[in-house]
Protein backbone atom coordinates (compact mmCIF):
# COMPACT_ATOMS: atom_id res chain seq x y z
CA UNK A 1 0.00 0.00 0.00
CA UNK A 2 2.62 2.55 1.10
CA UNK A 3 4.95 1.26 -1.58
CA UNK A 4 2.37 1.58 -4.39
CA UNK A 5 1.65 5.19 -3.46
CA UNK A 6 5.34 5.96 -3.20
CA UNK A 7 6.05 4.42 -6.61
CA UNK A 8 3.32 6.53 -8.16
CA UNK A 9 4.67 9.65 -6.51
CA UNK A 10 8.25 8.84 -7.61
CA UNK A 11 7.12 8.44 -11.21
CA UNK A 12 5.25 11.73 -11.09
CA UNK A 13 8.19 13.64 -9.68
CA UNK A 14 11.10 11.94 -11.41
CA UNK A 15 9.76 9.75 -14.25
CA UNK A 16 9.25 5.98 -14.52
CA UNK A 17 12.28 4.91 -16.52
CA UNK A 18 15.43 3.07 -15.38
CA UNK A 19 16.46 0.91 -12.44
CA UNK A 20 14.26 2.05 -9.55
CA UNK A 21 14.83 0.33 -6.20
CA UNK A 22 13.02 0.44 -2.86
CA UNK A 23 14.51 0.14 0.63
CA UNK A 24 13.31 0.24 4.22
CA UNK A 25 14.94 0.96 7.57
CA UNK A 26 13.05 0.83 10.88
CA UNK A 27 12.84 3.31 13.72
CA UNK A 28 13.87 2.22 17.20
CA UNK A 29 12.74 2.39 20.77
CA UNK A 30 15.01 1.96 23.75
CA UNK A 31 13.63 -0.27 26.52
CA UNK A 32 16.24 0.88 29.04
CA UNK A 33 19.83 2.21 29.13
CA UNK A 34 19.42 5.91 28.43
CA UNK A 35 22.34 8.28 27.96
CA UNK A 36 24.71 5.40 28.63
CA UNK A 37 25.87 4.82 25.05
CA UNK A 38 28.39 7.67 24.94
CA UNK A 39 29.57 6.67 28.42
CA UNK A 40 30.76 3.20 27.46
CA UNK A 41 27.71 1.60 29.09
CA UNK A 42 25.00 -0.84 28.04
CA UNK A 43 21.79 -0.17 26.12
CA UNK A 44 18.75 -2.35 25.42
CA UNK A 45 16.87 -1.05 22.38
CA UNK A 46 14.83 -2.73 19.67
CA UNK A 47 13.87 -1.92 16.09
CA UNK A 48 10.24 -1.17 15.28
CA UNK A 49 8.05 -2.21 12.37
CA UNK A 50 7.52 1.45 11.50
CA UNK A 51 10.33 3.27 9.76
CA UNK A 52 11.52 4.99 6.60
CA UNK A 53 10.93 3.88 3.02
CA UNK A 54 13.23 5.11 0.27
CA UNK A 55 12.83 4.79 -3.48
CA UNK A 56 16.00 5.63 -5.38
CA UNK A 57 17.41 5.64 -8.89
CA UNK A 58 21.02 6.29 -9.78
CA UNK A 59 21.66 9.18 -12.16
CA UNK A 60 24.41 9.53 -14.74
CA UNK A 61 25.47 12.95 -13.48
CA UNK A 62 26.31 14.33 -10.02
CA UNK A 63 22.91 15.85 -9.30
CA UNK A 64 20.81 14.94 -6.28
CA UNK A 65 17.06 15.38 -6.30
CA UNK A 66 15.08 14.74 -3.12
CA UNK A 67 11.38 14.59 -2.42
CA UNK A 68 9.76 13.67 0.89
CA UNK A 69 6.11 12.73 1.15
CA UNK A 70 6.35 13.94 4.76
CA UNK A 71 7.46 17.43 3.74
CA UNK A 72 5.47 17.97 0.56
CA UNK A 73 5.55 21.73 1.05
CA UNK A 74 9.31 21.68 0.42
CA UNK A 75 8.76 20.26 -3.08
CA UNK A 76 11.65 18.68 -4.99
CA UNK A 77 14.92 19.79 -3.41
CA UNK A 78 17.87 19.89 -5.79
CA UNK A 79 21.45 19.56 -4.70
CA UNK A 80 24.63 17.91 -5.90
CA UNK A 81 27.51 15.68 -4.86
CA UNK A 82 29.71 18.77 -5.23
CA UNK A 83 27.75 20.68 -2.61
CA UNK A 84 28.35 19.13 0.81
CA UNK A 85 28.05 21.61 3.67
CA UNK A 86 28.69 19.77 6.96
CA UNK A 87 27.03 21.33 10.01
CA UNK A 88 25.25 23.92 7.90
CA UNK A 89 22.30 22.16 6.31
CA UNK A 90 19.07 22.49 8.22
CA UNK A 91 16.52 20.57 6.17
CA UNK A 92 16.07 16.83 5.89
CA UNK A 93 18.35 16.07 2.86
CA UNK A 94 21.17 16.80 5.33
CA UNK A 95 20.74 13.17 6.49
CA UNK A 96 21.07 11.32 3.17
CA UNK A 97 23.72 13.79 2.04
CA UNK A 98 25.63 13.23 5.28
CA UNK A 99 25.75 9.49 4.52
CA UNK A 100 26.99 10.09 0.96
CA UNK A 101 29.66 12.42 2.33
CA UNK A 102 30.60 9.78 4.93
CA UNK A 103 30.90 7.01 2.32
CA UNK A 104 33.29 9.24 0.37
CA UNK A 105 35.31 10.00 3.53
CA UNK A 106 35.59 6.30 4.33
CA UNK A 107 36.90 5.48 0.85
CA UNK A 108 33.65 4.29 -0.76
CA UNK A 109 33.23 6.57 -3.78
CA UNK A 110 29.82 7.98 -4.66
CA UNK A 111 30.49 9.30 -8.20
CA UNK A 112 26.91 9.53 -9.44
CA UNK A 113 23.90 11.25 -7.92
CA UNK A 114 20.37 10.01 -7.27
CA UNK A 115 16.70 10.78 -7.51
CA UNK A 116 15.33 9.94 -4.09
CA UNK A 117 11.83 9.78 -2.70
CA UNK A 118 11.28 9.26 1.00
CA UNK A 119 8.32 8.42 3.15
CA UNK A 120 8.49 7.74 6.87
CA UNK A 121 5.76 6.51 9.16
CA UNK A 122 7.80 7.30 12.27
CA UNK A 123 6.35 10.50 13.69
CA UNK A 124 9.01 13.20 13.10
CA UNK A 125 10.76 14.53 16.17
CA UNK A 126 9.17 11.83 18.32
CA UNK A 127 12.48 10.53 19.59
CA UNK A 128 12.09 7.23 17.73
CA UNK A 129 15.16 7.95 15.64
CA UNK A 130 13.71 9.08 12.36
CA UNK A 131 17.12 10.62 11.62
CA UNK A 132 19.09 7.42 12.25
CA UNK A 133 16.49 5.58 10.19
CA UNK A 134 17.09 7.91 7.23
CA UNK A 135 20.85 7.53 7.65
CA UNK A 136 20.56 3.75 7.70
CA UNK A 137 18.20 3.47 4.73
CA UNK A 138 20.59 5.70 2.77
CA UNK A 139 23.57 3.56 3.77
CA UNK A 140 21.82 0.38 2.69
CA UNK A 141 20.82 2.02 -0.60
CA UNK A 142 24.38 3.20 -1.32
CA UNK A 143 25.83 -0.23 -0.47
CA UNK A 144 23.39 -1.91 -2.84
CA UNK A 145 23.56 0.60 -5.71
CA UNK A 146 27.37 0.66 -5.74
CA UNK A 147 27.87 -3.01 -4.85
CA UNK A 148 29.89 -2.31 -1.70
CA UNK A 149 28.88 -5.69 -0.34
CA UNK A 150 31.84 -5.96 2.02
CA UNK A 151 30.20 -3.34 4.22
CA UNK A 152 28.37 -4.97 7.12
CA UNK A 153 25.30 -3.59 8.84
CA UNK A 154 27.54 -2.66 11.77
CA UNK A 155 29.72 -0.63 9.37
CA UNK A 156 26.59 1.14 8.20
CA UNK A 157 25.62 1.86 11.81
CA UNK A 158 29.08 3.34 12.46
CA UNK A 159 28.88 5.42 9.29
CA UNK A 160 25.47 6.68 10.37
CA UNK A 161 26.88 7.76 13.71
CA UNK A 162 29.87 9.37 12.00
CA UNK A 163 27.54 11.25 9.71
CA UNK A 164 25.30 12.41 12.55
CA UNK A 165 28.35 13.56 14.58
CA UNK A 166 30.24 15.23 11.79
CA UNK A 167 27.67 16.28 9.22
CA UNK A 168 24.66 17.00 11.41
CA UNK A 169 26.47 18.24 14.50
CA UNK A 170 24.90 15.93 17.09
CA UNK A 171 27.47 14.04 19.18
CA UNK A 172 25.21 11.01 19.55
CA UNK A 173 26.36 7.58 20.67
CA UNK A 174 25.95 4.39 18.63
CA UNK A 175 22.65 3.12 20.07
CA UNK A 176 20.17 4.37 17.48
CA UNK A 177 22.08 3.43 14.37
CA UNK A 178 23.04 0.05 15.86
CA UNK A 179 19.50 -0.79 16.94
CA UNK A 180 18.19 0.06 13.49
CA UNK A 181 20.90 -1.61 11.41
CA UNK A 182 20.92 -4.76 13.54
CA UNK A 183 17.21 -5.01 14.36
CA UNK A 184 15.64 -8.46 14.66
CA UNK A 185 11.95 -9.20 14.81
CA UNK A 186 10.64 -9.82 18.34
CA UNK A 187 14.10 -9.32 19.85
CA UNK A 188 15.74 -6.52 21.77
CA UNK A 189 19.48 -5.94 21.43
CA UNK A 190 21.62 -5.96 24.55
CA UNK A 191 24.63 -3.95 23.43
CA UNK A 192 27.81 -3.12 25.29
CA UNK A 193 28.77 0.21 23.74
CA UNK A 194 32.34 -0.04 25.03
CA UNK A 195 33.20 -2.81 22.56
CA UNK A 196 30.05 -3.30 20.41
CA UNK A 197 29.52 -6.83 21.72
CA UNK A 198 25.83 -7.64 21.58
CA UNK A 199 23.28 -10.39 22.10
CA UNK A 200 19.69 -10.68 20.99
CA UNK A 201 17.20 -11.15 23.81
CA UNK A 202 13.63 -12.25 22.98
CA UNK A 203 11.32 -9.38 23.82
CA UNK A 204 8.78 -11.57 25.58
CA UNK A 205 6.27 -9.34 27.28
CA UNK A 206 3.64 -12.02 27.99
CA UNK A 207 0.18 -10.42 27.90
CA UNK A 208 1.62 -6.91 27.57
CA UNK A 209 2.11 -4.45 24.75
CA UNK A 210 4.63 -1.68 24.16
CA UNK A 211 2.75 1.62 24.07
CA UNK A 212 4.57 4.75 22.96
CA UNK A 213 3.12 8.06 24.03
CA UNK A 214 4.35 10.96 21.96
CA UNK A 215 4.44 14.27 23.80
CA UNK A 216 4.29 16.12 20.46
CA UNK A 217 6.95 18.38 21.81
CA UNK A 218 9.45 18.34 19.02
CA UNK A 219 13.19 18.14 19.23
CA UNK A 220 15.13 19.30 16.28
CA UNK A 221 18.42 19.01 14.46
CA UNK A 222 21.53 19.77 16.49
CA UNK A 223 20.00 19.77 19.93
CA UNK A 224 22.48 21.73 22.02
CA UNK A 225 21.37 20.33 25.39
CA UNK A 226 22.24 16.82 24.26
CA UNK A 227 25.80 17.85 23.48
CA UNK A 228 25.91 19.66 26.81
CA UNK A 229 24.99 16.47 28.74
CA UNK A 230 27.72 14.64 26.92
CA UNK A 231 30.26 17.33 27.84
CA UNK A 232 29.16 17.18 31.50
CA UNK A 233 29.77 13.43 31.57
CA UNK A 234 33.18 13.91 29.99
CA UNK A 235 34.04 16.47 32.66
CA UNK A 236 32.97 14.07 35.42
CA UNK A 237 35.05 11.27 33.91
CA UNK A 238 38.12 13.52 33.64
CA UNK A 239 37.80 14.36 37.37
CA UNK A 240 37.37 10.69 38.30
CA UNK A 241 40.37 9.70 36.20
CA UNK A 242 42.53 11.87 38.49
CA UNK A 243 41.90 9.37 41.30
CA UNK A 244 41.11 6.13 39.48
CA UNK A 245 42.31 4.46 36.32
CA UNK A 246 39.03 3.92 34.50
CA UNK A 247 38.15 4.11 30.80
CA UNK A 248 34.55 5.30 30.99
CA UNK A 249 31.71 5.92 33.43
CA UNK A 250 30.19 2.67 32.21
CA UNK A 251 33.16 0.77 33.59
CA UNK A 252 32.31 1.80 37.18
CA UNK A 253 30.02 -0.09 39.54
CA UNK A 254 27.73 2.05 41.67
CA UNK A 255 29.76 1.06 44.76
CA UNK A 256 32.99 2.23 43.12
CA UNK A 257 31.28 5.44 42.08
CA UNK A 258 30.05 6.13 45.61
CA UNK A 259 33.63 5.74 46.89
CA UNK A 260 35.16 8.26 44.53
CA UNK A 261 32.30 10.54 43.55
CA UNK A 262 33.72 13.47 45.54
CA UNK A 263 36.50 13.65 42.97
CA UNK A 264 33.90 15.24 40.70
CA UNK A 265 34.06 18.85 41.78
CA UNK A 266 30.98 20.22 40.02
CA UNK A 267 27.62 19.23 41.58
CA UNK A 268 25.82 19.06 38.26
CA UNK A 269 28.50 16.91 36.61
CA UNK A 270 28.39 14.57 39.65
CA UNK A 271 24.63 14.08 39.19
CA UNK A 272 25.06 13.36 35.48
CA UNK A 273 27.74 10.78 36.25
CA UNK A 274 25.58 9.19 38.92
CA UNK A 275 22.81 8.67 36.38
CA UNK A 276 25.21 7.17 33.84
CA UNK A 277 26.65 4.68 36.37
CA UNK A 278 23.36 3.59 37.96
CA UNK A 279 21.50 3.47 34.65
CA UNK A 280 24.14 1.16 33.26
CA UNK A 281 23.70 -1.19 36.24
CA UNK A 282 19.93 -1.05 35.90
CA UNK A 283 20.23 -2.01 32.24
CA UNK A 284 22.35 -5.08 32.94
CA UNK A 285 19.93 -6.15 35.66
CA UNK A 286 16.87 -5.43 33.53
CA UNK A 287 18.09 -7.80 30.83
CA UNK A 288 18.53 -10.56 33.42
CA UNK A 289 15.02 -9.97 34.73
CA UNK A 290 13.43 -10.00 31.28
CA UNK A 291 15.27 -13.23 30.42
CA UNK A 292 13.97 -14.75 33.66
CA UNK A 293 10.41 -13.67 32.82
CA UNK A 294 10.28 -11.33 35.83
CA UNK A 295 8.29 -8.67 34.07
CA UNK A 296 7.04 -6.83 37.16
CA UNK A 297 10.58 -6.30 38.41
CA UNK A 298 11.73 -5.34 34.93
CA UNK A 299 9.02 -2.67 34.91
CA UNK A 300 10.16 -1.25 38.24
CA UNK A 301 13.61 -0.62 36.76
CA UNK A 302 11.99 1.28 33.90
CA UNK A 303 10.29 3.51 36.46
CA UNK A 304 13.57 4.04 38.32
CA UNK A 305 15.23 4.94 35.06
CA UNK A 306 12.70 7.71 34.54
CA UNK A 307 13.20 9.10 38.04
CA UNK A 308 16.95 9.21 37.47
CA UNK A 309 16.55 10.89 34.07
CA UNK A 310 14.21 13.40 35.69
CA UNK A 311 16.13 14.22 38.86
CA UNK A 312 19.80 13.56 38.10
CA UNK A 313 20.12 13.81 34.34
CA UNK A 314 17.39 16.45 33.98
CA UNK A 315 16.29 15.61 30.46
CA UNK A 316 12.57 15.00 30.98
CA UNK A 317 10.58 18.22 31.29
CA UNK A 318 6.93 18.72 32.15
CA UNK A 319 5.58 16.97 29.05
CA UNK A 320 7.40 13.67 29.53
CA UNK A 321 6.92 13.78 33.32
CA UNK A 322 3.18 14.29 32.87
CA UNK A 323 2.92 11.34 30.49
CA UNK A 324 4.91 9.04 32.77
CA UNK A 325 3.20 10.09 36.00
CA UNK A 326 -0.21 9.60 34.36
CA UNK A 327 0.93 6.18 33.13
CA UNK A 328 2.07 5.12 36.61
CA UNK A 329 -1.46 5.79 37.88
CA UNK A 330 -3.10 3.55 35.27
CA UNK A 331 -4.15 -0.01 35.86
CA UNK A 332 -2.14 -2.67 34.07
CA UNK A 333 1.02 -0.58 33.65
CA UNK A 334 4.13 -2.67 34.31
CA UNK A 335 6.52 0.25 33.85
CA UNK A 336 6.83 3.58 32.11
CA UNK A 337 9.68 5.96 31.32
CA UNK A 338 10.86 8.51 28.82
CA UNK A 339 12.79 6.95 25.96
CA UNK A 340 15.48 8.39 23.67
CA UNK A 341 17.31 11.64 24.24
CA UNK A 342 14.49 13.31 26.18
CA UNK A 343 13.59 17.03 26.21
CA UNK A 344 10.44 16.02 24.30
CA UNK A 345 9.74 13.01 22.15
CA UNK A 346 8.16 9.82 23.54
CA UNK A 347 7.64 7.72 26.60
CA UNK A 348 7.56 3.94 26.55
CA UNK A 349 5.05 2.06 28.69
CA UNK A 350 4.64 -1.68 29.09
CA UNK A 351 0.88 -2.15 29.45
CA UNK A 352 -1.33 -5.21 29.87
CA UNK A 353 -3.16 -5.67 26.59
CA UNK A 354 -6.59 -5.57 28.22
CA UNK A 355 -5.79 -2.16 29.74
CA UNK A 356 -4.31 -0.48 26.66
CA UNK A 357 -7.49 1.29 25.56
CA UNK A 358 -8.18 2.72 29.01
CA UNK A 359 -4.51 3.70 29.30
CA UNK A 360 -4.68 5.73 26.09
CA UNK A 361 -7.88 7.45 27.20
CA UNK A 362 -6.70 8.25 30.73
CA UNK A 363 -3.17 9.35 29.90
CA UNK A 364 -4.43 11.28 26.87
CA UNK A 365 -6.95 13.19 28.96
CA UNK A 366 -4.56 14.03 31.79
CA UNK A 367 -1.94 15.16 29.29
CA UNK A 368 -4.24 17.42 27.33
CA UNK A 369 -5.73 18.92 30.51
CA UNK A 370 -2.30 19.81 31.87
CA UNK A 371 -0.26 20.61 28.77
CA UNK A 372 -2.95 22.15 26.58
CA UNK A 373 -2.51 19.98 23.51
CA UNK A 374 -2.94 16.30 22.72
CA UNK A 375 -0.45 13.46 22.93
CA UNK A 376 -0.43 10.66 20.34
CA UNK A 377 -0.29 6.97 21.16
CA UNK A 378 1.21 4.09 19.22
CA UNK A 379 1.00 0.41 20.08
CA UNK A 380 4.15 -0.88 18.43
CA UNK A 381 5.74 -4.17 17.43
CA UNK A 382 9.40 -5.13 17.42
CA UNK A 383 10.61 -5.52 13.85
CA UNK A 384 13.56 -6.45 11.66
CA UNK A 385 16.49 -4.35 10.50
CA UNK A 386 16.88 -2.65 7.11
CA UNK A 387 16.21 -4.32 3.76
CA UNK A 388 15.89 -3.84 0.05
CA UNK A 389 12.24 -4.54 -0.71
C1 LIG B 1 19.77 9.86 21.36
C2 LIG B 1 21.14 9.49 20.80
C3 LIG B 1 21.61 8.13 21.32
C4 LIG B 1 21.48 8.05 22.83
C5 LIG B 1 20.10 8.52 23.31
C6 LIG B 1 20.01 8.61 24.80
O1 LIG B 1 18.80 8.99 20.85
O2 LIG B 1 21.13 9.49 19.39
O3 LIG B 1 22.93 7.89 20.90
O4 LIG B 1 22.49 8.76 23.46
O5 LIG B 1 19.78 9.79 22.77
O6 LIG B 1 20.10 7.35 25.37
What do you see in this structure?
- The protein has 11 helices and 12 strands.
- It has helices at residues 2-14, 94-105, 130-146, 153-166, 175-181, 224-241, 254-260, 267-291, 295-311, 317-328, 356-371, and strands at 20-32, 42-58, 63-68, 77-80, 114-120, 187-192, 197-202, 208-214, 333-339, 346-352, 376-380, 387-388.
- Helix 3 packs across helix 4 and helix 8 (267-291) packs antiparallel against helix 9.
- The radius of gyration is 21 Å and the shape is globular.
- The chain starts with a helix and ends with a strand.
- The structure holds alpha-D-galactopyranose.
Number of helices: 11
Q: Report the average pLDDT across residues.
A: 96
Distinct ligands, ions and cofactors found in the model: alpha-D-galactopyranose
Care to count the β-strands? 12
Roughly how many Å is the radius of gyration?
21 Å
Sum up the overall morphology in one term.
globular
Strand content: 15-25%
List unreliable stretches of 5+ residues: none
> What is the percent of helical residues?
40-55%
**Strand/helix succession:** HEEEEHEHHHEEEHHHHHEEHEE
End-to-end Cα distance: 13 Å
Largest sheet: 8 strands, mixed
Question: What features would you highlight for this structure?
Answer:
eight-stranded mixed sheet, 12 strands, 11 helices, 389 residues, four-stranded antiparallel sheet, binds alpha-D-galactopyranose
Amino acid sequence: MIQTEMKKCFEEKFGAEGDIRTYFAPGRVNLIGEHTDYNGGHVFPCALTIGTYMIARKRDDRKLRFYSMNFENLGVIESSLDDFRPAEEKIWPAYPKGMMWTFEKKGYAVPFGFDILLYGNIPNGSGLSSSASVETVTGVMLRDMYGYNELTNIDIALYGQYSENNYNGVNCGIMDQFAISMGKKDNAIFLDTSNLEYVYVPCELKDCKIVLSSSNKKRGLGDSKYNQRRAECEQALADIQKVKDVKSLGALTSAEFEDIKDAVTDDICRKRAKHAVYENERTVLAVELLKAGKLEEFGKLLNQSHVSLRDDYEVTGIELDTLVEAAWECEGVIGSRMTGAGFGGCTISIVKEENVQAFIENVGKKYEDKIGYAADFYVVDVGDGPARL
